[in-house]
Write the structure tokens for this entry.
Amino acid sequence: LSLGDPFLDLGSSTSGTVGLAGDWWSSTTAGGIELDALHVVTRPWTFLGSENLLAGDVVFSTTGKITLFNNVMNKDDLWLCRPSLPFDLGSCTCNLLVDMSTFSIKPSGPISLVEAAVTVGSTPLQVGDIVFSSTPSEPALYYVRPSQSLTATLLVAYEGLDVSNARAVTGIDVIEETVVVGGYSLLAGGVLVGFDDETNVGDNALDLSHRDVALLVVTSSSHTQAYRLVDGSDVDLDFESWDVTLAYNYADITATTTTTATTT
């Protein structure tokens, strides 16, 4: 699904046009295997000096082993697929980017693939870094720089006051360039996150539901201020679980929120 213009307005009174961005995955036909991470590439760049990525490429992982697009994909493999048409993965070519099970801390769920150098808090991220969460019991985001090491480094602890109410992260996006969208100026270095259940986040303990997307303004590796960017209940995004990725087209200064959802 996509949430965008026309009539896009973000914040506590969210509005906009909800549309179908793509329909290419079925957990039934995939034997119960689900998408785990999902990232839409927004610009041309090169990963690890050899893999050329293009805008519109889709990077994803799955919750288990599956044969897809004539490739055997294992859990924690991060794959790059290039569709013949935007979001149409009925016909595409795929390459393995990296085996994330080799990271010193294993990712759990979504990732954000850094496509432009940006500083989050006081931490400079480079092109090709992978930002991810670990487990709900450890409410923090980490990053790995595959060009140098598979060792994970703490980026930010995102829950401030109620760690006991930590929930699994279902979406991550690092804002790499300042952009105005839906009436908000999103500054480079912020982080967008979604969760699988009601929780609170940030030093200000912002209450969130599983339908919301929060903007984290990172001031240090242990301090954030959280703001509700998308109130999913305002636009009837009422799923029991989400896998959320947030993709920006900076060239057009537009934004979409791409989701896959299960209703079991």
The chain has no helices and 26 strands.
